Amino acid sequence: MSNLDEYGGGQGPDADVLVVTTNDVPGYRVERVIGEVFGLTVRSRHIGTQIGASFKSMLGGELRGLTKTLVESRNQAMQRLVEQTKARGGNAVLMMRFDVTEAADLGTEICAYGTAAVIVPAG
What we know:
It is a single chain. By secondary structure, the chain is an alpha+beta fold. It has one domain (about 5-120): Translation Initiation Factor IF3 (2-Layer Sandwich). Helix content is about 35%, strand content about 35%. The chain has a four-stranded mixed beta sheet with strand order 1-3-4-2. The N and C termini lie far apart (about 40 Å).
């Protein structure tokens, strides 16, 4: 796995479902709006990562272990979002967003959400 995959995310060029943060997709028209979809994951904190992060926070700098965990969590939530969209017959998610919250001091909840739709080439 490259640093790009460890510290970033998003779709590859051959994705079955296009996920965008915009209201529309240039060159396409929305044929049908399916509705809201979301993908959710809750991750507990790894004790080793927490201890390392505590020491690192005293010195300053990036908390790489926590960054990797958050990237993995967001990618998993997004994959679940895509699965929900495909299951409902969609080929696109418009206005995708992430929401991250603490889950009762036990971990972090990551939710990817947006509007599932069917898009077709315009024209």
